[in-house]
Design brief:
The complex is a heterodimer of chains A (271) and B (291).
Chain A lengths: L5 H12 L26 H23 L1 H7 L1 H14 L14 H7 L7 H17 L9 H6 L9 E4 L3 E8 L1 H10 L8 E10 L5 E6 L1 H11 L4 H10 L6 H17 L3 E5 L1
Helix pairs in contact in A: 2-4, 3-4, 3-6, 5-6, 9-10
Chain B lengths: L2 H4 L7 E4 L2 H10 L6 E4 L9 H12 L2 E4 L13 H13 L5 E5 L1 E4 L2 E7 L5 H18 L3 E5 L13 H12 L2 E5 H11 L3 H7 L5 E7 L2 E2 L4 E2 L8 H14 L4 E4 L7 H19 L6 H6 L1
Parallel strand pairs in B: 1-2, 1-12, 2-3, 4-7, 7-8, 8-9, 9-12
Antiparallel strand pairs in B: 5-6, 10-11
Helix pairs in contact in B: 5-6, 8-9, 9-10
The chains are: A alpha+beta (271), B alpha/beta (291).
């Protein structure tokens, strides 16, 4: 062990620190041979165990704080099991603990038994959207003079920029209402299936919100968020909803835009 | 000329860590406090409430960034994005120095978010010196490394931690953040003499001192920052002050965070110890001279 390079030493120790089960003298990992026993009677393995225990305490606490809706959906005991499985499948990467749960939605959607519960997947998606908007970049407010000065025939070519601190979340349940109730500590019930387009955003005062939007408006937002010009985005969404006549659709787009700007969701219009 | 004098390192007095439960009170009421330490990584984001609070706090108080994730002893390459964000933060709050820990935090792109100790030997020393130099070149302000609490020692260590830290600071020409609670904790855990450790640290390189509470876990002490500073640690603080002189002091309290009154009272205890050892010193004198 004495001839190992520092990177080899550190790789061994990381494996031991992330070990899912308690370390003791009977189950000492190879890394323990790198260490001295303590003068106070701690074995090599028990010294490593101090770090292993803290690894799980720290990361489980961080994820528990970040995924409150998911925790309610799966229940406390199963949630602990879910998080332990997640951390083994997706070890923490990078310095930013805020990003620790970035792959929780993917893990829940693809790993049994969690993948069998669509509400769990929805909760993970929404909780993560809140994490993302919490510290997403700031953006200056929309310059309404640009909007007012734009000639009508320029709008089809416009690109609409939404806040960096805004996420559109499509779920099979109104999970944003469940999250609000969980956060308030209210008695909750599992919501029935209800396809929902929710928008999660951070306002100018740094408060976080989530509301449901009209599904067609949500589709238009998706196209605009992808960078599609307004005219092209409207045409493609309208084509997908032939039952809505053109006049009604145009009127709806006008109302949605007013609503988006009133909510502070639009930060720039490139005309 | 000593390190502190060469870099005109100010004595900011006694501060506390700026933590979430107290932010609203601090920003709204502006209670008296000599200075605040901020966890660097908490303020790296380009937006959100933390950044907004940072701007307001920096307008009213002296803020010093203290990192936990640089991994100066790690073997993965130092993340240039991390360094760029740290440099921007230092500039934003006009910090006269910043600090992190003598430790490593992960390997193979896995970050365990802990302050893991290093084997103290010449090979590790050369490795860390090289990384400290690169960090300092990037930051353009004095950079200090803190002795971390530890719970394990390596068979491959050939020198005591204080000797490693002293030689590192001299050869890399960096500062030292002397955490006397960490000295106490590690001395208990490893059976070395805490006073001898403090006596061996190059006093002129100490640009900040940390105080904190710890938790007795039976066979070892855990550096929890969850309680009052122990009287034995305050004795060690007295010893450090007698050696180092007028140095900024910071009280850390990160778990079971108490009311502002209790926390500021803890800072007052540290301030009274400072006054007892140093007399009425003129904090900010060096800062004023360099500003």
């Amino acid at each position: 062990m004495g001839s190992l390079r520092l990177d080899e030493v550190q790789a061994l120790l990381v494996g031991a620190v992330m070990h899912p089960a308690q370390l003791d003298a009977d189950a000492a990992p190879p890394a323990s041979a790198l260490l001295r026993p303590s003068a106070r009677g701690m074995t090599r393995a028990s010294r490593l165990e101090v770090y292993r225990e803290q690894f799980w305490i720290r990361h489980l606490a961080s994820l528990t704080e970040d995924f409150s809706t998911l925790r309610w959906v799966v229940g406390e005991r199963a949630f602990d099991e879910l998080l332990r499985g997640y951390l083994q499948a997706y070890p923490p990467r990078g310095w930013n603990l805020q990003r620790l749960g970035a792959d929780v939605p993917e893990f829940v959607a693809s790993s049994a038994p969690w993948s069998a519960d669509p509400l769990a997947g929805d909760a993970a998606l929404l909780d993560w959207a809140f994490m993302e908007v919490f510290d997403a970049p700031d953006a200056p407010p929309l310059d309404l003079r640009v909007v007012a000065a734009a000639p009508p025939d320029a709008w089809p070519q416009a690109r609409i920029a939404f806040l960096p601190a805004l996420r559109r979340v499509v779920t099979g349940h109104a999970v944003h209402e469940l999250r609000a109730a969980v956060k308030k500590g209210e008695k909750c019930q599992r919501p029935l299936a209800a396809p929902t387009h929710a928008v999660v955003w951070r306002d100018a005062a740094c408060f976080l919100h989530a509301v449901a939007v009209d599904p067609v408006a949500g589709e238009l937002m998706r196209a605009l968020l992808d960078g599609t010009r307004l005219g092209e985005a409207c045409a493609s969404v309208a084509a997908a909803h032939p039952a809505v006549d053109a006049e009604t659709f145009d009127a709806n787009v006008g109302q949605w835009f007013q609503q988006w700007t009133a909510n502070g969701w639009v930060c720039a219009v490139d005309i | 000329m000593g390190y502190r004098q060469r870099h005109a390192i100010p004595d900011l007095g006694v501060g506390v860590g700026l933590r979430t439960p107290h932010v609203a009170h601090v920003l709204r009421d502006g209670p008296p406090m000599d200075w605040f330490e901020i966890i660097s990584e908490n303020y790296f984001a380009d937006g959100g409430i933390q950044r907004a609070n940072l701007e307001r706090a920096a307008a009213a108080y002296r803020l010093i960034p203290h990192g936990v994730s640089l991994s100066i002893g790690g073997t993965d390459p130092i993340d240039p994005g991390y360094l760029a964000r740290l440099r921007a933060l230092v500039s934003r709050v006009r910090a006269p120095w910043c600090s992190d820990h003598l430790c490593w935090t992960g390997s193979g792109k896995v970050d365990v978010h802990d302050l893991l100790p290093l084997p103290y030997n010449p090979e590790t020393l050369s490795h860390v010196i090289d990384r400290v130099r690169r960090v300092q070149d990037e930051l353009q302000v004095p950079f200090a490394l803190e002795n971390a609490s530890s719970y394990m020692e390596f068979e491959a260590s050939t020198m005591p931690e204080h000797e490693f830290l002293a030689e590192l600071s001299e050869r890399a020409d960096c500062g030292i953040l002397l955490d006397v609670n960490n000295v106490f904790v590690s001395a208990y855990n490893h059976g070395f003499d805490a006073e001898a450790y403090v006596d061996a640290i190059p006093a002129d390189r100490v640009l900040q001192i940390h105080l904190a509470g710890h938790t007795h876990k039976g066979l070892y002490l855990l550096d929890t920052h969850s309680d009052h500073v122990r009287p034995e640690v305050l004795d060690l603080y007295r010893r450090a002050l007698r050696r180092c002189g007028s140095v900024s002091t910071l009280v850390e309290w990160d778990e079971s965070i108490p009311s502002w009154d209790v926390l500021s009272g803890e800072a007052a205890v540290a301030r009274s110890v400072r006054d007892e050892v140093l007399g009425a010193t003129s904090k900010e004198a060096a800062w004023g001279a360099s500003a």
